[in-house]
Amino acid sequence: MLEKGKISSFQMGIMMYPVVVGTADLLLPGITAKFAKNDLWISPIIASLMGLFTLFIAYQLHRLYPNQTIIQYSKHIIGLIPGKILGIIYLFFFLHVNGLIIRQYGEFIVGSFLPRTPISVVISTMILVCAFAVCGGLEVLGRASQFFVPIVVLLWGVIVILLIPDMDPKNILPILEKGITPPIIGAITPMGWFTHFILISFILPFVTDQEKGMKWGIISIFGIMITLVLLNMTTFFVFGRNTANYLYPVMFAVRYIRIADFFEQIDPVIVAIWVSGTFIKISVYYYALVLGTTQWLNLSNCRPVVFPLGFLLILFSFWSIPSLLELVHFLRIVPFYNMTIEMVIPTFLLLIAVLRNRNRQKAS
Q1: Cβ–Cβ under 8 Å, residues 300 and 155
Q2: Which residue, among 239, 194, 170, has the nearest Cα to 52 in the 3D structure?
Q3: Most exposed: 40, 224, 262, 349, by fewest CB within 10 Å?
Q4: CA 297 to centroid of chain Cα atoms
């Protein structure tokens, strides 16, 4: 096996938390509010069902092919040539989606905090740090997640508590005024984030206690759901229906925090949360791209492809989306793009694999 490191299922679960929350925490409240209005807190609950389904598909495929990733077992399921083609599709997807994630990170940092810094510098420095983490392997990513994620969760908790004086719980009423349809439509975008759990197909082969993988995956999804529900409710309690008018509503809500005359302007806390979460998210996608490329090319070592792929990620962050306006527009399409590659295709792979196994059992 190319990866020599091992992590626990707990580390896998904690690693997947920022893969969803890493960019969803600031973007999703505003996007969801446009469709779900005051029922936006229900949308993450509905969307989490897609995460559970994707986790189930990934785990069942892993049980059939326990020491292989989706790049490897797709060749056994649909044949060598179709499997190779599907592998290319997945590698391009990881390259493209990670380019979008990197661009979101760069646009947020430059647009909100470093307006005079070239976005190329912000993006390149992040990719360099992520490249060193990926070179260290899965164990390094697992330990980094164990360090950063509790800090991120603690900081979000502090922010929610400090915003309590500015909240008006009446904003959320009436509940389900127009039925369940608005929150279901509002759940479509977060569904695209929850399908990122297909990435565990690149992690499970290197987990020491694989039998607990499903358990910690479910716990991770539940933790993500609770986080998004709380963030959606917090921003809506503060802004009401104006939440939909903000690209980063949580960041603007944080600027409302004032305690006495000395505790205010805590924007650096948002930077710490965003950078930490996005670092893990980019690194996990980067790792899947590097491992998948190495397996697709039948190389014996991952390291020779790390920095070339990092350079490609920088290029794709600029090629994918020309501007912030286009990025916001593309985010409406991303859920369907994500669900097709990360949920629909693996579902068909599982169905084909199960049918083939049954036919073999009957034949024997």
Answers
A1: no
A2: 194
A3: 262
A4: 26
The sign of the dihedral angle between the CA atoms of 224, 225, 230, 235 is positive
Question: Angle between the 9-36 and 213-239 helix axes, to the nearest 10 degrees?
Answer: 30
145-163 pLDDT, tens digit per residue, is 999 999 888 888 888 888 8
Sign of the CA dihedral running 236, 40, 223, 67: negative
Residue 305 φ/ψ, nearest 5 degrees? -100, -5
Strand partners, 207: 7
CB neighbours of residue 32 within 10 Å: 34
> What does the alpha-carbon distance between residue 349 and residue 57 come to, in Å, rounded to a whole number?
9
- pLDDT tens for each residue of 246-263: 888 888 888 777 665 555
Which H helix or E strand runs over 351? helix 345-363
Encoded tokens for 32:
């969801």
Q: Taking the model in full, what pTM does it have?
A: 0.91
CB 84 within 8 A of CB 225: no
Sign of CA dihedral 108, 113, 117, 123: negative
Q: How far apart are CA 259 and CA 257, in angstroms?
A: 7
Neighbours of 335 (CB within 10 A): 21
How far apart, in Å, do the first and last CA atoms of the chain sit? 31
3-class state of residue 259 by DSSP: strand
Amino acid at 344: V
Q: Which residues pair with 258 in a beta bridge?
A: 264
